[in-house]
Write a structure and sequence with these properties.
Helix content is about 35%, strand content about 15%. The chain is an alpha/beta fold. α6 links the parallel β5 and β6. Bound molecules: pyridoxal-5'-phosphate (PLP).
Amino acid sequence: MQDKFIGPDKIIEKKQEYMIPCVYHFYQEPMQIVKGEGKYLFDHTGKQYLDFFAGVSVVGAGHCHPEITEEVCRQVKTLQHTTTIYLTQPIVDLAEKLAQVTPGKLKKSFFCSSGTEANEGAALLAKLYTGNSEFISLRSGLHGRTYLTMSLTGLSFWRTDPNPVGGISFAPNAYCYRCPYEGTYPDCDLACAKEIEKVIQTSTSGNVAAFIAEPIQGNGGVITPPLDYFKVVKEILDRHEILLIVDEIQTGFGRTGKMFAIENYGVDPQIMTVAKALANGTPVGAFIAESDVADCYTRPGASTLGGNPVTAAASLATLEVIEKEKLVKNAAEVGPYFKEKLLELKDKHPIIGDVRGIGLMLGAELVREGKEPAVEETDKVLEYLKNAGVIIGKNGPSRNVLAFQPPLIISKNDVDQVVKELDRVLAEL
Ligand SMILES: Cc1ncc(COP(=O)(O)O)c(C=O)c1O
């Protein structure tokens, strides 16, 4: 097997010579991944890894799912591309399906090829509908890498552009473990949510198009607001006639044990953005809006590859697999079991400062004394687990949060394997 592959050293050499250096990779000793199957990845030596990161919440249905792969191949062999100036069926079938699976009155979709584009388009739609051009975003949110979406991002790690877009104000996120008001839920009375009103009154002209937020902040460190947080936020937004854009790019399609994470919070956004897990690995992005909001976007808009027959077929097949294999239910069952095990580890290992998340979107924040971020230790855990055949992610503003976002097909036995290895490495630190 090994002879066919150039191996990690050669790949790094080529990366350094031919790729723009902003693209980083994990691990001191990285492997060359050559194959994926279900919940497993394989490297060039044939070593198997249990994947608990799913390519950052993308491969929800598992790697190279046979039915999705077959559908993609069938579509590639039949009609790969035309663009939206010609009529094709998969794109409208997908739009119809999204209207059915998304919450509230979300109905009309625009398709593109990435999460970044989806957020960029959603922001444009909010501007068109409201006639306003300011936005409110959350600290530690991540919304993309273009000029506007990077400016909406509240993580300096991902804000490379030194001249961000103006008219964006940031509100504190619901980071209960490090509460900006040093409060404790529920006694805090959700001061962070209420702060949004003060931000509107003090940092904006009052003419705000939209508030954008991830229901659970992925890159921000699996920051999971209390379950009544978005109700308080939405009430403020409604009073000020500000739209709610929910970024479900990392949380969508079953990950939290509901089809969409915002459903855990009981509010309906006027616009939702999706990408990643919608097509299980085929590049896709979309924003979907309530009809009255969507209908104001009448000037021509086109994305050459957005909703192309292959992506749309992959998305439809993925949605079918999610339903058929009851993946949302599995996330709702295995997720709490996993969280309980992580909480047990927290009791045993003081380096785990906090465990948070819903369903199969879980995080464990590693800290030293006085909650100092345990950054090097986080890297050691990732390296050890990789060597033991387990892949997890890391995130958070200080990169000290272990991120567990596996394919939704995993079982409690898989959780036990990961927890056993985690227990071992934490004992060694
Ligand atoms: C919540 C969220 N929004 C937007 C994006 C950007 O998506 P993409 O990388 O597909 O452009 C990401 C990427 O990780 C994300 O996690």
